[in-house]
Amino acid sequence: MPTRWQLLLRPTDPIRSTHIPPAQLHGLACRLLEGASADHHSQTKPFAITPVVEAPHAPGYATLALNWLDDHTTPPLDTLRGEHIRLGSQFFTVEDVQGSSAPYAALQALPATRRVTLNFLSVTYFTRSGRWIPLPDPELLYTGLARRWNTFAPQTFPDPLTTSLRETVRLTAHELHSAPADLGPASRTGFTGQATFTLPHSAPDDLASAFTALSAYAEAAGIGAQTTHGLGWTTTTLHSQRRTTNSKDQQQRPSRNRKTADKSPQSGYSP
């Protein structure tokens, strides 16, 4: 099942910046996770990693998350507490490890929606035919999520369903900013920000369920290219289905209730 470990890190030198280049994040993820993977050279890796950021509730500490996608085996990262890790020239002590999981079956059982907002917290980009694409193209986005899901989940989405999804889903709103990906000589331009994707109200229920599950899955799998390097870190807001009401009901309903009704169900992961 998709599993996340949130690591709380105490830096040896707290004055230094917590910025870690993507290549070093990738090296750490491979050391900690690839021993549990059967294929070290697979193009679709069973893990993703987030950037190192300042811990919001622990001043002077840093945090990162490691996400594992393979449903057949899970690496024992709970034993990392107290270990020392190196990221480039910076050293950290793992002060705490918090694990959480969201089984594939639970993602499929989420209440179906036809509107989601994805929040791209680290630089995100896509590739196609050898070209990089710094835009949240819905076809590329959901094709990539479906490929990762079908590689690691015990129950896959049939090809006709994923084809229908990528042909139907639409990008309907966005607030994005161009941003460089720190990849050394092979620099790329990507984006951060948020984007909203929708299905038409006429979309069948099985399509809406797949759309919902894959959108929630983005929190574990990441979005786009080089998610094993800290790129494509994403959180998901699933907007509830709006009920049809008459004008009298709409006038009587408190505004705070309308806001609450639009909040997302939880996917099982902590933000």
From TrEMBL:
Protein name (record): CRISPR system precrRNA processing endoribonuclease RAMP protein Cas6
Region (Disordered): 236-271
The species this protein was found in: Streptomyces sirii
Residue span, CRISPR-associated protein Cas6 C-terminal domain: 118-233
Gene for this chain: cas6
CDD domains: Cas6_III-like
